[in-house]
Every structure is written in C-alpha cells, then in structure tokens.
Amino acid sequence: MNAMMREAKYHTFAVQLMEHLVVPTFVLDAAGRVIIWNRACERMTGVPASAVLGTRRHWTGFYQQQRRCLADLVLEGASARVAEFYEIDRSLDCQTGALSAENWCVFPTGRGRRYLAIDAGPIYADDGTLIAVVETLRDITAQKEAQSALELLASLDGLTGIANRRAFDVRFESEWELAARSGQPLSLLMIDIDHFKIYNDHLGHQCGDDCLKRIAQIIVGETRGDVDIVARYGGEEFAVVLPHAGLDGALSVAHRILEATDRAAIPHHEASSQDRVTISIGAASRNSEMTSPADLIAAADASLYAAKQRGRNLIVAQRSVAA
After folding, report:
1. pTM, whole model, 2 decimals?
2. Residues that are catalytic
3. Which of 92, 118, 145 is at the close of a domain?
4. DSSP code string of 44-113
5. 317: domain CATH number?
6. What residues does the PAC domain cover (predicted)?
C-alpha cells in the first residue's frame, strides 16, 4: 500500500512539474489523446487545456487544418515522414524514437506567425511498452528572422541591391534543372553598359556607382519581379534569367530595357558615339544542343560580344540581331 501511495505521489508530482514548466509542453497517451497541456502551451497557443484534454485535437493549437504533429509521428514510428510536414528535420538518432524539427506556424487563435523548434520523444514503461509521447516547443522566431536577414544580405549586391553573382549562380542552376525536367523554356539576357570605363574615369567612381544603380533599377522595372532573376553579374555587366520565356519573350524584355535606358537619358559626354549612356544586350534561350547552364551563359555572352562588335546599343539574339 505504501508503495502504491508513493507511486501515486510521484505521478502527481511529475504531472504538476510538467504543468508548471516554462517550456510549452503537451503529452499524448498511447492512443494519441492529450493527457497534459501545460500552462506555457496555453499561453503560446491561446488554446485552454480544457479544449483539448482527452481529445486528439492537439493539432488545433497550431494549425488551421488537421495534420500530424511531431508527437503523432513518434507514436506512428514515422520518422521518415518528418520532412513531409516540417521545414527542417533535425532528428539526430531515430533509433531512440525521438524526433526534432523546425517549422513556421500560424496559430489559429490569432497569436500570429511564429517559427518553432519542436522536440518529441517517447516514454516507455519498465517492460518497454510505449505509454506516452512528450512534445516540447520553443519559439525561435527572432533567431530565424535574423538568420533570414543575414542570408538575404549575403545574396544581394551591396551597391545596386539586386542579386549578386553568388545568388545568380545558385538560382540559375536551379532554374536550369527545373526547365530540363519540365521541358519549359528558359532564356538569359546578358547586359553591359557601353563605354562604362570612359564614363567612370571621366566623372568619377561616385557617378559610376550612381549609373550602375540607375541601370539596375531600369532592368528591374522592365522585368517580372516575382518570376525573373535580375543580378549584377560583375563590374558593369548584368544578367537576367527569364524562366518560362522563349527567345521571342526574351527579345521583348530586352527591347523594353533598351528603350527604358534610352528614355532615362543618362548623360555620357565622353562616349565615342552617343551623348547618353547606352547598353548592349545578348539574348539566348535553352535548346536541345545545350547540356549545362554554362552552355546557355556562353550563348548569351557570345551574343553580347557580337552586339559590342556591331556598334553597341544593340540586342543580339544568338545568331540574329535586333536594333
């Protein structure tokens, strides 16, 4: 009897301890029903314990539509499915049955959008029987947003604010692979400011920087902001990746950029043939003869070189010229 009383006492203490943990925590029994929904979990989700205790509706604290929480995947022994439901799987040793993940969560109760670090682990009886699963949650939104801000800064050109060469390489590779799988067209524009060295040497680096920023703004303004990728490729050269666009579409964009640059009328008194800043554009589209992203870049580069050789302020599309 004393042993039973001690066991009951320890059980009560364990439940009370978990209830008062500062870490949001809930516990499911072996059937997936909520047996503990602590006060920190109530504060985080806005869902009172009375609304979920004894039910399998723990998901309502975190999601608009029914879906598995990490604790459910532990109960099901479904460690292989973590990536199906969570942005990042941080599970280190699935042999123990414990899982760890990270995910954005929009609380249905209006508590906003938060990024959570989540851990879930099994509790076994002395005979090895699974009796419960504990899930704990940490709000790491501030850390995630800081990380995202740093990643964004690392991908942008410090002068113009558009994508830098590193970001271009990564995203262009991704678009190439997508186009190769889907059979969708993919085009590339290479754009160079004509006589930029003369401009920079005569007017100074500050004016040169201003010119680069103006041209970057013009290119961005004539492209699809939510689809196309505009990058500073190097020096006074820019690149525009045009997913789902064939050569005709690429030429249409190139003409708009050329015309917008002409309308901007950026003075260039030292140019050999124009009194304003002009650009040359090389255009190319992916075709069956190309086997890698480098092939498309080489084709667009060759077109750009041809535009320079033919007098500048031109668009050259592979083997054809458009004024």
Report:
1. 0.62
2. 236
3. 145
4. HH---GGGTBTSS-GGGGT-SS----HHHHHHHT-GGGHHHH-SEE----GGGT-EEEEEEEE-TTS--E
5. 3.30.70.270
6. 99-152
